[in-house]
Structures are given as structure tokens and as C-alpha cells.
Structure to design on (169 residues):
């Protein structure tokens, strides 16, 4: 019996993720069971690895990153994002085209199926912020993610060049 327990705890250790670094290890979860019309139950999102890059010099374009996991039972869609820190926030994808990385706006947003994640991280999907001002290293900016079902989710996003690697959880 004792041996069995030891094996179990080893397996648990092996399943652990590496410790996230610093404040960027923040996690926000939102959940709702039932909607007023009674149609949708248990919509839930886990938001991790969020960060925003500070603006550099006179450059007013920057980006925000977040990993979104659908931990609920219904599909949801990230429709758009907004931040008081910028004139516009758009959802961008990054794809290889003829050997060149090209970014494009994902105007339909991102559908996230139950159990699936969408990762916004350097080199890939990102939330493009244009006309940004006062996005200073060490501060926080409120980023709002607009979901079709989960509604508006507010994140206090640390401004840092130490961007955490997003990962599918
Ligand atoms: Cu972009």
C-alpha cells in the first residue's frame, strides 16, 4: 500500500508544469452556469500568461498576450479586445507566407472549443495595440476581452518585456 502511494505522488510530480515566472504567472478564471434564456450552461475560461509589451520611444504600436483555455462545456468565441491604453486593439494571427511572417487581423475572432486553448504569444497570435500611450514597463493596463458567451473579462495586465511563453494547457 505504501509503495502504491509513492508511485502516485511521483506521477503527480511529473505532471507538474514548470513554475511560471513572477507576476506573469497570474491566473484569472471566469465561469457562469446558466444564462437568462436557460440555453447555455457552464461557460468557463481560464486566462493565464498575460502580459503587455511597453511602447518604445515614439512608437505607439505594441502588443498584448494571453493564453485562454476553455474549461467549460460549451464552445465560446473571443470576439474582440479593448484597452483604454490604446486607440485600437485588434486580434492578429501570424502566418508564414512565402518564407515571410505575415500578420493579419482575425476579424471573426477565435472560437475556443471546450478543453481547447488559444495562445497569444510572441511570434504567433497577438492582440495588436495601435495608438498606445503611456504603456510603461512596470505598470499595469486593463485589457478587456469580449467573449460571445462569457461576456467581458477584465484583466489587469502587467507591462513588461519579460513576456511569458504562452502554452496550451
Ligand atoms: Cu499585429
Amino acid at each position: 500500500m505504501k509503495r502504491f502511494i509513492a508511485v502516485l505522488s511521483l506521477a503527480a510530480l511529473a505532471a507538474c508544469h514548470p513554475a511560471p515566472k513572477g507576476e506573469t504567472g497570474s491566473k484569472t478564471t471566469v465561469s457562469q452556469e446558466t444564462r437568462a434564456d436557460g440555453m447555455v450552461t457552464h461557460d468557463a475560461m481560464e486566462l493565464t500568461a498575460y502580459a503587455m509589451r511597453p511602447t518604445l520611444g515614439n512608437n505607439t504600436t505594441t502588443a498584448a498576450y494571453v493564453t485562454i483555455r476553455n474549461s467549460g462545456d460549451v464552445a465560446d468565441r473571443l470576439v474582440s479586445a479593448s484597452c483604454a491604453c490604446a486607440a485600437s486593439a485588434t486580434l492578429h494571427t501570424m502566418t508564414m507566407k512565402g518564407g515571410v511572417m505575415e500578420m493579419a487581423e482575425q476579424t471573426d475572432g477565435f472560437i475556443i472549443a471546450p478543453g481547447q486553448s488559444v495562445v497569444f504569444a510572441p511570434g504567433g497570435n497577438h492582440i495588436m495595440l495601435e495608438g498606445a500611450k503611456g504603456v510603461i514597463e512596470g505598470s499595469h493596463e486593463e485589457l478587456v476581452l469580449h467573449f460571445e458567451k462569457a461576456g467581458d473579462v477584465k484583466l489587469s495586465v502587467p507591462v513588461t518585456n519579460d513576456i511569458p511563453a504562452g502554452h496550451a494547457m
